[in-house]
Amino acid sequence: MKLTVIGCSGSVPGPDSAASSYLVTAEGFNLVLDLGSGALGTLQRHLAVPEIGAIGLSHLHPDHCMDLCGLYVAARYAPGAPIPRIPVYGPPGASERMALAYDLPLDPGMEEELDFHAWQEVQAIGPFTIRTAPMVHPVPAYAIRVEYGGRVLVYTGDTGPNEALIELARGADVLLSEAALPDGDPGNPADLHLTPSDAGEHATKAGAKRLVITHVPPWYDPVVQAEHARRTFSGPIEIASTNAVFDI
């Protein structure tokens, strides 16, 4: 499978990237993980809206889901609309949350354009087997494991350190990990995000083969974050950047 970075800026869009969004493809199927602020524009460099096979939302903070509002408009009003409903997997209540975001009646909300489903522990989406685990964050949040053809990608979403992430990431070929907080800052809030050393430690304990650092806010340097991850992970470390492609 192939991973294409659509947006990797942490917490807010940055000058060089939209907020969180990642395109995973195999057998011609396009799975989008998160669609944060500004990501829909970049996504259309890679595929047209009707080519989206499904969307998976790690959680419902705006930097991970808010461009569903633009997607709803495109699916409803662009030439060729209406298109088949796009499946959207996410935390319970995603349909209602997105209806409120666009000031729509809760019934039907966006349900005529988007087909919302709550995450299950295991499900098939297109050619992929998807496993999820609840993470540690102020709102319900999930890490996502994507399996295809004996290869494994694990995306942390947003989370503080936790054992469930290590278990979900066991043997991953790529761990796509947020590293939103700086190492060594005593003011870092608990149960919110990972530091680079946290990301490296989780990758090491999980036996991940590669670590890709992402979700770095624009006020921190991703190169520094990646260097700090080397303190706790000895394998290959790469930095997510807009339009970067990783073969898995």
Automatic annotation (TrEMBL):
* Segment forming the signal sequence: none
This chain belongs to which protein, by name?
Ribonuclease BN (tRNA processing enzyme)
Q: What is the lineage of its organism?
A: Bacteria, Bacillati, Actinomycetota, Actinomycetes, Propionibacteriales
The residue ranges of the Metallo-beta-lactamase domain are 18-215
**Which InterPro entries does UniProt cross-reference here?**
Metallo-B-lactamas (IPR001279), RibonucZ/Hydroxyglut_hydro (IPR036866)
Q: Which CDD domains match?
A: RNaseZ_short-form-like_MBL-fold
Q: Which GO terms describe its molecular function?
A: 3'-tRNA processing endoribonuclease activity
Organism, by scientific name, is Kribbella solani
